Amino acid sequence: MTTQALDAWTTVRTQLDSMLDSLTDQEWQEPSACPGWRVRDLLAHLGASARAAIDPLPDPPDAPALPDNRERQHDVFVDRRRDWSVDEVVKEYREYGSKLVELVTTLQAEPAASQPFPVPGLGVYPAHSLANAMVFDYYCHLRHDLLAPHGPIERALPAPEHATVHAAVTWMMLGLPQMQGDALDDTVTAPITLHLTGPGQSEWTIHRPDPAGGLVVDERGGADVVVTSDAHAFVAWATQRHPWQQDCSIIGDPSVATPLLDALNII
């Protein structure tokens, strides 16, 4: 365990803030690559998520119960901010984002770091890995939903850094056995290695050692079936932003890997 993910979050947060400072009034209203969300709505999501961990916005009177699905919960929180001005959205994001940094920083040292931290609808994680969760959320939205070619914003950023992409991928691998409940368990009938290349380069083997149990993900290679993908692209296709087929090659029996690849949807 290190503070590398916290440093990576600083990097991607700085990149996002720089882009936000340059947006025109028109760009704030452009549709992002997240269906139904404008650029301003995507920032509202980040601000709402930060605020929820610190001091949640009170529910409106007579608000219906939140949906069980985590993604639909995010839609509800964004909808509650659709009538806000852009300045109000930015103010919440900056105020509670800074407070969230302070909170997550306190979780990087023992004894807090290894304590189980439940994330409603997504599983239970070591508390220090919330820094990884933040890297994933910011990186995925910035690089895949806001910036061209998939998003509406044309800005030049430095190439993705290894530490940032690896921190995001680490969160995804922690979540893979949990986020979809047991829906993925039966898709893994033999070990499958994900060989990720480029910044974030790493190998991860997904297996099910107990046929009656859930999946296990280890940071190692060694499986007979190997799926190779660029790590940056993995962040997109493993969240079902586009089909995995355009970014992956398979060594070994494709019928072993394709059920998992078809079903995978990390949040």
What this model shows, in words?
This protein has 267 residues and is of the alpha+beta class. The chain is 44% helix and 12% strand. The chain folds into 2 domains: 4-164, Four Helix Bundle (Hemerythrin (Met), subunit A), CATH 1.20.120; 185-263, SCP2 sterol-binding domain (Nonspecific Lipid-transfer Protein, Chain A, 2-Layer Sandwich). It has helices at residues 4-21, 25-29, 39-54, 70-79, 86-106, 130-146, 162-175, 231-237, 254-263; strands spanning 116-119, 123-126, 192-197, 202-207, 216-218, 225-230, 249-251. The strands form 2 sheets. A 5-stranded mixed β-sheet has the order 5-4-3-6-7. A two-stranded antiparallel sheet has the order 1-2. A hairpin with an 8-residue loop joins strand 4 (202-207) and strand 5. Helix 7 (162-175) runs parallel beside helix 8. The relative contact order is 0.13.
N-to-C SSE series? HHHHHEEHHEEEEHEH
Counted by DSSP, the helix tally is 9
- The helical percent reads 40-55%
Rounded to an integer in angstroms, the radius of gyration calculated over CA atoms is 19 Å
Principal-axis shape equals: globular
Strand neighbour order, sheet with most strands:
5-4-3-6-7
CATH class of the largest domain: Mainly Alpha
- What is the domain tally? 2
Work out the strand percent.
Answer: 5-15%
Query: What's the CATH architecture name of the largest domain?
Result: Up-down Bundle
**Structural class, from helix and strand content?**
alpha+beta
- CATH fourth-tier homologous superfamily of the largest domain: dinb family like domain
Biggest β-sheet description: 5 strands, mixed
**Cα distance spanning the termini:** 23 Å
Mean pLDDT across all amino acids: 95
Instruction: Say what the CATH topology of the largest domain is.
Output: Four Helix Bundle (Hemerythrin (Met), subunit A)
Unreliable stretches (pLDDT < 50, length at least 5) are none
Tally of DSSP β-strands: 7
